[in-house]
Each structure stands twice: as C-alpha cells, then as structure tokens.
Amino acid sequence: MTLDLHITLTYDMEVPTDILLQVEAAAIPEQVIEHASLDAPACDHFVRVAAHDGIGERIWLRPSGRLSIDYRAQVTVKRMLADIATLPQIALHLLPGETVQYLFDSHYCPATKFHAFVDTEFGHLQGGARIAAMQRWIAEHFVYQPGSSDGSTTALDSFVMRHGVCRDYAHVMIVLARASSIPARFASVYAPDVTPPDFHAVAEVFLADPAGDGGAWHLVDPTGMATAGEMVKIGVGRDALDVAFLTAFGTVELVEQNVSVTRAA
C-alpha cells in the first residue's frame, strides 16, 4: 500500500524558542519512502537527531516569529502482517533486552494498577489471543470523543472515564498489555480514514514472529480506524510523552494544523 502524506503546521512565538519536531515518516525496513520534502523557515539552528529506539528522526529548530512547516511524502508500506490472535507470547527470560523497558510503568501508563483487572477479565487467555480480546473490550466499552482529554490525561483516567481520543485508546491498550507481561509501546503513525484527519496514535505489542524464531513488534489500533497494512510509522516510545509531533521549550501559539493522508492513485 502506497500513501501520500501532506502535513502543514503553523505556530507563532514572540521570542526565539527551541522546538523539537517529529513529523517525518521513519526510514525503516517495513516502509519505503519513495520521495519526501520538508520546508521550514530559516532558523538559528536545524539539527537532526535519532528518535526513540532509532525509529525515525527528531529535528531541533530555533525559530522566531512564525514557524511554518510543510511536509510532503509518498511512502509504500511493506510490513509483515499477522493475525494477532494466533501469536504466542514470548517468555520473559527470552525477551530481547531492548523490549524490557516496555513492561514497566511510564508517565501516562501506570500498568501496575491494572494487574487485578486483567487477571479477572482476561485471565483465561494468553498471548495474542489476550491482546485481541483486550482490543475488542476497548472497542466495546469506550467512546471516541474529541476534546475529552488533554495532556495530563493518563491511561487510568481514560479507563475510569471510558472515553477519549486515539492517544487515550493507545495508552489503555498499552497498560493492559504490560499488566499481562507483554511488552507494549506507543506508536505515532499516519493512516488514511482517520476521523478527524490528524496524527494518529496506536499501540505496538511484542509477540512471536510468525516468520521465524523469536519475537516481533505488531501494530494494534484499539480505535479500529486504521489497519497495520495502511499505517506509516513516524516514531515510537514508552507513551505519548516520547513521541510528540512538536514539543516547544517555551510559549508558542498554534495558528493552523492540517494532516492529509490518502491512498496513492
């Protein structure tokens, strides 16, 4: 599947401000960037650094006045797809070292508070079958409600309120998986059919690799709006704190934001 991306961001700031930007599709084996361009104004500095887990890049900018970003790309997704429900869980002592951090609590994902719930609700299931059941449970019990959460909303808050947006759904999926001793991380992606059009957030869980020995990361969208074969990955992290598309180290004002993701003709 080939997708066309066009993202524009406009922010105003009164004084020069350091910005950390992460909007470009990651150059990784599971997706091929056919072509891409990023237009930005002249800044005091423009420096690329590796993003979390080496997936994608972040850009340090120091603009002043108005920051206008125009990013365009065409990306072909070549991701290995599998039926999550059929995949075994990887024993804890066999997990690759880099996945272990995704078993622990993080800023928005207090997984240790969910042990009793997952044991009661999903204790009869294991591995991918449990992940699939958790995905169905979230779809049945949550209401997608734009504007119902903010930057302070945790997975526990969302679990209690039973509503939220994609980042909240992803956080709940992550804590349920981690409480089941399955590594889970937050993935920022582009996908068509996201309503309203925006940056999209999903979960990624570490289960058996259907193509061979060991394990692999598998994308899971608890909102049901996107499928793994039509997601362009931007970056990953412990939760939304690690994968913000724009972090300002100062005061900025959003003027305009547009995200367009369409299937290539």
Q: Averaging pLDDT over every residue, what do you get? A: 96
Please outline the major beta sheet: 4 strands, antiparallel
C-alpha end-to-end distance: 10 Å
Approximate strand percentage: 35-45%
How do the helices and strands follow one another from N- to C-terminus?
EEEEEEHHEHEHEEEEEE
Radius of gyration from the alpha-carbon trace, in angstroms: 18 Å
| Overall morphology | globular
Number of helices: 4
Helix content: 10-25%
Record field, number of beta strands: 14
Low-confidence stretches: none
Cross-sheet strand order for the largest sheet: 3-6-1-14
Provide the structure class.
Answer: alpha+beta
How are the secondary structure elements laid out?
Layout lengths: L1 E12 L4 E4 L9 E9 L6 E5 L6 E5 L3 E13 L37 H8 L4 H15 L1 E2 L10 H7 L1 E2 L1 H13 L5 E7 L9 E9 L6 E6 L11 E6 L8 E4 L3 E11 L2
Parallel strand pairs: 7-8
Antiparallel strand pairs: 1-6, 1-14, 2-5, 2-13, 3-6, 4-5, 9-10, 9-12, 10-11
Question: Which labels suit this protein?
Answer:
265 residues; 4-stranded antiparallel β-sheet; 4 helices; 14 strands; globular
Summarize this entry quickly.
The chain has 265 residues and is an alpha+beta fold. The chain has four helices and 14 strands. Helix 2 (127-141) runs antiparallel to helix 4.
Task: Describe the overall structure.
The protein has 265 residues and is an alpha+beta fold. 16% of the residues lie in helices and 36% in strands. It has four helices and 14 strands. The chain has helices spanning 115-122, 127-141, 155-161, 166-178; strands spanning 2-13, 18-21, 31-39, 46-50, 57-61, 65-77, 143-144, 163-164, 184-190, 200-208, 215-220, 232-237, 246-249, 253-263. It has a four-stranded antiparallel beta sheet with strand order 3-6-1-14, with no helix packed on it. The protein has a four-stranded antiparallel beta sheet with strand order 4-5-2-13, with no helix packed on it. Helix 2 (127-141) packs antiparallel against helix 4. The chain is globular, with a radius of gyration of 18 Å. The N and C termini lie close together (10 Å). The mean pLDDT is 96.
